[in-house]
Predict the structure.
Amino acid sequence: MHFKARAGEKLRDTRLQQALAKAQGKFVHTRAEAILELENFEAYRDAAASIRDRVIRDLDLYLEQFEKNASARGAVVHWAETAQDVNRIVCEIAELHGVRKAVKSKSMVSEECALNEALEAAGVEVVETDLGEYILQLAHEPPSHIVAPVVHKTKDEVSDLFEQKHKKPRKTGIPELCREAREVLRPHFLSADMGISGANFLIAETGSTLIVTNEGNGRLVTTMPRVHVAITGIEKVVPTLEDIATLLRLLPRSATGQAITNYVSINTGIKSRDDSDGPEHFHIVLVDAGRTKLLGGVMQSMLRCIRCGACMNHCPVYQNIGGHAYGWVYPGPMGSVLTPVYAGLENALDLPNASTFCGECAVVCPVKIPLPDLMRNLREQQTEQGLRSWQERLALKIWAWTALHPGIYAALSRIAARILKGMAGGGKLLHYLPGGHGWTDGRDLPAPEGRTFRELYRERRR
Amino acid sequence: MGRIRAALGKSAGRADREEIDAYISQHAAGPRPRAEWNLIARFRDRVLSLASSIDQVASASEVPQALARYLRENNLPLQAVCWPEFTQLDWTAQGMNVAARPAKGSDLVGITGAFCAIAETGTLVLLSGKESPPATSLLPETHIAVVRSTRIVKGMEEAWSLLRKEYPVMPRAVNFVSGPSRTADIEQTVTLGAHGPYRVHIILVD
Ligand code: SF4
């Protein structure tokens, strides 16, 4: 199903609409409060954008540094060109270490390549441990938001699901539901052979991976099992710990309105002989899967993204339809840019158009990605590659030609204004426009007064 | 790597290895909050806002008494595991049973120290190591952290400098802990106690 069809369906889903309305206000409000603490917020955004640009400009060299330092501490760095490569590499690691069970904390990149299915096919039991992701795994659904994956579900739906799957007395309070999940998941952490995590950042200076979590599952996943696999995009490198400090002042504030997440875990290498806990094997899988396509081109700034979700929290389109309508891992404005690039422009025709161009996403983005410009650029590429419908292209051609011929343009608009006035039949609003029902189905068009702007302008000047 | 290089190849302003090494070794800090905080007051304030609790004692020998009082007030067990540095304290006099070993899944109270603490965010910085097993601050439902007030630093940047000075090699795990574990996944309602501790209690030692 395409975006337009899915969007229509989501708009009619009243449960989803309630869940979205509840969440959105909270995200916008808490972010606004959290950034007030930092006087001169713009300076932080500038600094963050330039840290990210510095790395992307010399990504090869920073990755080299990272790999050198990570390997020196006993980690093994793997390079995955495609999503399939990620699955193959992780399955091989699982086989190498005789892994039967894996616990997983959130990793968007592993969603990109449907890793769980691949591991399960290889005979490895996979347990999602982030509460939201765990709920989705029980419900067999994909996430709908990169920070709050079950934002589309109400508490009652979760109660139903737990009762059915855990076969325990039904809980109705949120704290009781959380405790039940903790009790079900704790034994998995302690018995798993492998922990799979993402990485919010890679630190070139130290060869470390960094993850931020609130639930503490990220810490458990990287501490308890004997094998740790961190999977993340090649663009996540950051030069120094000081740069991390700058980015950490922005990421949680932009994401959830927290000054800092409950946990920031920086992992470097494998456990030493002295350590009482920590993994014996540490594998870091660095994923391209379309990212190099963004390098060196007009879309390069998209690689700055630190996956905070602020752009979708502030997006009027996302607010109305939720994340599933976008059809892939990344929803909202960042998804409208990433999905066409990673999954192919021809597979995401409507996405660069899923925007009102209000510009709010670019205003809130902590690393100053000009999201509306990038979407506009993708629209242009679609048109150039002949991916838009012939009607749309013909209409634009006619418009472009007439716009270059002012005399004809004036004459045509005079005629159009008068016809539209006639169609409104003396009323002020048009309820129907031939060929334009996508617009008029949901709203009315104010009818023209009958004369064009140019005519009025000429008259007033006299 | 080949593809990355090919894609970046001719773009303007590319650096070489030396420039990158130079940038990294500079450790340049970005913009920072300008306020001149009283570090202890700021730390205390932040800790409370993160839903942790905090107490202050004059010397390490007073820790067992303060802790026993906290545990009794909150109806928590007087049994705990601790980092080796606290074995010498007189726990039994307070009716407590404290074992110096890393925490297991069934332990309910874990006592740790901290490498340092960050005033800006009310954060504990914990390092992994033989003397500081990470599980102790993670598995039990209650995490008690004993922090020297002289080890409260202003921000992350000061914590990094201290780390570089005292640990020439990065410890395997550096964990920032800012309050009890929490989740807001169900209806964006914040609930304390997800996979980590339900409560964090900090005892400052002057
Ligand atoms: S594009 Fe910007 S606002 Fe959106 S998720 Fe990425 S960093 Fe956050």
Q: What stands out?
A: The first strand of chain A starts at residue 75 and ends at 80.
